[in-house]
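[Q] Does anyone have a clean structure-token version of this?
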Amino acid sequence: MKNISQSSLMIIALALALLSACSGSGGGEGDNNNVPVQPTNAVLTLSTTVTGAIPATTTINSYDVTITLPEGVTVKASPDSINPSVMTTDPGVVTPTGNASGASVSAIYTAANGGNPGTVKVHIASGTGFSAGKFCTINGDVAAGAYPAPADFLAPTLDDATGIDASVSTVILTGELHLDATVVVN
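[A] Here you go.
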């Protein structure tokens, strides 16, 4: 009888050891390795390249850009102090960078509504001007349960680009530039 009890204990111990070795590595529904990581933010970096002819004496002094956000992506915004029905992005959401570092920036956020996607309209300007290249980053928030990919972001639109030439005249540059966007979803 003593041998049966020792044998039973050894079988139970072996069964428990096998069960604990198998947990979490079977690749089944409860396997955490198959659960996608929930992204929390999306960062868009905007830049331009010259595709036309910009005179050497002309510098870019402003861009107006529209960014369409995919479903589940928003930006932090607050009611404008002058017109509370307009939502302006919070500090740090839209930042002048690269060649436009130090430029002034303002952005209006329109939340998705009734099948229309959310948008951010960015205006960036500098009295001293800047050259083509990287000019702005936009920090978006990803809602819980949303998994946007960089391909889900539509190409932003360069609505307007102006420059100042040596005679301090305004020059329309929209047709001379190409707008690029790089998206990183974290």
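[Q] Thanks! Anything notable?
[A] The longest helix spans residues 2-22.
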